[in-house]
Amino acid sequence: MREKRVATTAVALQDGRVFCFGGFDGTSRLSTVEFCCLQRNWRETKSHGAAATDTFWKTAAPMRFARSKLAGAYFRGRIIIVGGYNRKGGLSSVDMFSPPDAERPLGEWTELTDMQQPRHMCFLLVCNERLFAIGGEEDPQNTVEEFSSKDPLPPIDSDLVTWTWIENRRASKLNGIRGAATVIL
């Protein structure tokens, strides 16, 4: 990668692109975004060292602000980034990233409605065309929020700017949620 980072989030797209958002470089939190394209034969590339990094990893438009311990997911053709941590604490912010294309070579960010609860080290899952923010290190740690449209059957190209977060029933038998995954068979 172009920048050293930990506590980042990565989101893979069906076209082979993998995006890494924010994180921590050992000194400060990052707002930067990098991506690569993993073709089927990516391991067979002959270049090595710094030159390979310079061509393999590309930069995209930075986030609105620096954060680490954030979560991300691909949802309805865009990447949603939620929560995270800055020097003041956990964040409830939500942003949508439209990946780079011919019209927007660096991609484009749009601010969305904040979650109801600050969350860092949380999980963002897509299931049945629904988006959920789960758990995190902020108390209470057993909550689930759903990103929801006022329209019960929103079109796939729905404007996500009008959507809001709704808290679902808490996982009362759990003190906290420390992991989550979506598996599609």
Any overview of this molecule?
The chain has 185 residues and is mainly β. The chain contains 1 helix and 14 strands; from the N terminus they run βββαβββββββββββ. The strands form 4 sheets. A 4-stranded antiparallel beta sheet has the order 1-2-3-4. Strands 5-6-9-10 form a 4-stranded antiparallel beta sheet, with no helix packed on it. It has a 4-stranded antiparallel beta sheet with strand order 11-12-13-14, with no helix packed on it. Strand 7 and strand 8 (89-90) form a beta hairpin. This is Kelch-like protein 18. It comes from Schistocephalus solidus. Keywords: Kelch repeat, Repeat. Pfam families: Kelch_1.
Runs with pLDDT <50, length 5+?
A: none
Helix content: under 10%
Q: Strands of the biggest beta sheet: in what spatial order?
A: 1-2-3-4
Mean pLDDT: 87
Protein name: Kelch-like protein 18
InterPro entries: Kelch-typ_b-propeller, Kelch_1
Keywords: Kelch repeat, Repeat
